[in-house]
């Protein structure tokens, strides 16, 4: 489903997670629209969006954090790419995203530029999947860079 740059507004529907015609989609692209609100927690329900491989949500007006529910068993198990650049999201990458079998297919996640309130440590299992600045281990708040590698400092 490709609605890229179609002047869409409003929020992402919860109902997409239980709509039989939509749960088998492999790609949802609504980037460069006026989508507002937060990422639907319901998309992480058991077996919701289980065939989705590419989720393109860049260049919208999304707020809130990355839903813990998206790491639920069976949810989003085929997701390979997630693009959230240039939104207004906040919070951190939930630890459950790193330890979940539901997101084990994830290959690439774009969070910056944009999302100045989305910051904090990148779980070690996701370091090579968050794109932007090589092997960043942290996402700095309020900047467009993905982060810098944090090295231990000692005597």
Structure in a nutshell:
The chain has 155 residues and is mainly β.
Notes on the protein architecture:
With 155 residues, this protein is mainly beta. The protein has one domain (9-139): Ribonuclease Inhibitor (Leucine-rich repeat, LRR (right-handed beta-alpha superhelix), Alpha-Beta Horseshoe). The protein has one helix at 95-99, and strands spanning 9-11, 27-29, 34-37, 54-56, 61-62, 81-83, 90-91, 108-110, 117-118, 120-121, 130-131, 138-139. A five-stranded parallel β-sheet has the order 2-4-6-8-11, with no helix packed on it. The chain is globular. 34% of the residues are buried. The model is unreliable at 146-155 (pLDDT under 50).
SSE succession: EEEEEEEHEEEEE
What is the CATH topology assignment? Answer: Leucine-rich repeat, LRR (right-handed beta-alpha superhelix)
Largest sheet: 5 strands, parallel
The CATH fourth-level homologous superfamily: Ribonuclease Inhibitor
What would you call the shape?
globular
Query: Which architecture would the CATH scheme give at its second level?
Result: Alpha-Beta Horseshoe
Q: How many β strands by DSSP? A: 12
Number of structurally distinct domains: 1
Overall SS class: mainly beta
Query: How many alpha or pi helices?
Result: 1
Low-confidence stretches: 146-155
Distance between the termini: 55 Å
Tell me the Rg in angstroms: 15 Å
Q: How much beta, percentage-wise? A: 15-25%
Q: What is the residue-mean pLDDT, rounded to a whole number?
A: 84
Helicity level? under 10%
Q: Strands of the biggest beta sheet: in what spatial order?
A: 2-4-6-8-11
* CATH C-level label: Alpha Beta
């Amino acid at each position: 489903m490709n609605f890229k740059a179609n002047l869409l507004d409003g929020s992402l529907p919860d109902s997409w997670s239980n709509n039989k015609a939509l749960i088998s989609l492999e790609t949802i692209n609504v980037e460069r629209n006026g989508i507002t609100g937060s990422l639907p927690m319901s998309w992480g329900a058991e077996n919701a969006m289980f065939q989705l491989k590419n989720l393109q949500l860049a260049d919208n007006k999304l707020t809130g954090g990355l839903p813990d529910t998206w790491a639920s068993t069976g949810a989003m198990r085929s997701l390979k790419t997630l693009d959230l650049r240039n939104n207004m999201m906040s919070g951190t990458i939930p630890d459950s995203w790193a330890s979940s079998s539901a997101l084990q297919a994830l290959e690439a996640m774009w969070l910056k530029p944009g999302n100045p309130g989305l910051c904090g440590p990148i779980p070690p299992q996701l370091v090579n999947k968050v794109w932007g600045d090589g092997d960043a281990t942290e996402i700095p708040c309020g900047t467009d860079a993905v982060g810098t590698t944090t090295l231990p400092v000692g005597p």
